[in-house]
Amino acid sequence: MAAELDFTPPEIPEPTLMENILHYGLFFGAIFQLICVLAIILPIPKSHKTDTEGFESKSSEVVKKTKAAAASANKKPKKETKKKR
């Protein structure tokens, strides 16, 4: 009876090229997803230098023109009232 039992491990074929590509592609895809999720959870704080440079480059004339254009776009024409008979 003891001679009949074969305890050698079964032969496992080596992975093919496509199986290797799939294995490592899934691995790198999972790492990419983790990086994306961490980027959403832990946002990078903005540096103070970029904010001040943006304000210094704009002149007051450009700011006034954009405010005037926005104000004129927000105005709605007045509704005409019905005439009494």
TrEMBL record:
Keywords: Membrane, Transmembrane, Transmembrane helix. It is a single-pass membrane protein. Residues 48-85 are annotated as: Disordered. Residues 48-64 have a biased composition (Basic and acidic residues). The keyword Transmembrane applies. The chain crosses the membrane at residues 21-42. Residues 75-85 have a biased composition (Basic residues). It is found in: Membrane. Its main location: membrane. It holds the Pfam family UPF0239. InterPro entries: UPF0239. Belongs to the UPF0239 family. This is Protein MANBAL. It comes from Gekko japonicus (Schlegel's Japanese gecko).
